[in-house]
Task: inverse folding
């Protein structure tokens, strides 16, 4: 029974790590998808 809290903590840290990685991937994908549109709108505004 003494091992259970450390196992739960390791599981929580593992989940937190994957949540952070997936958040970073999602943020990066969002930036890469919106960047071309941002430049396109900027180019249209300069015309």
Result:
């Amino acid at each position: 029974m003494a091992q259970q809290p450390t196992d739960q903590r390791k599981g929580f840290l593992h989940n937190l790590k994957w949540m952070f990685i997936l958040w970073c991937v999602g943020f990066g994908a969002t930036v890469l998808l919106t960047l071309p549109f941002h430049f396109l709108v900027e180019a249209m505004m300069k015309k």
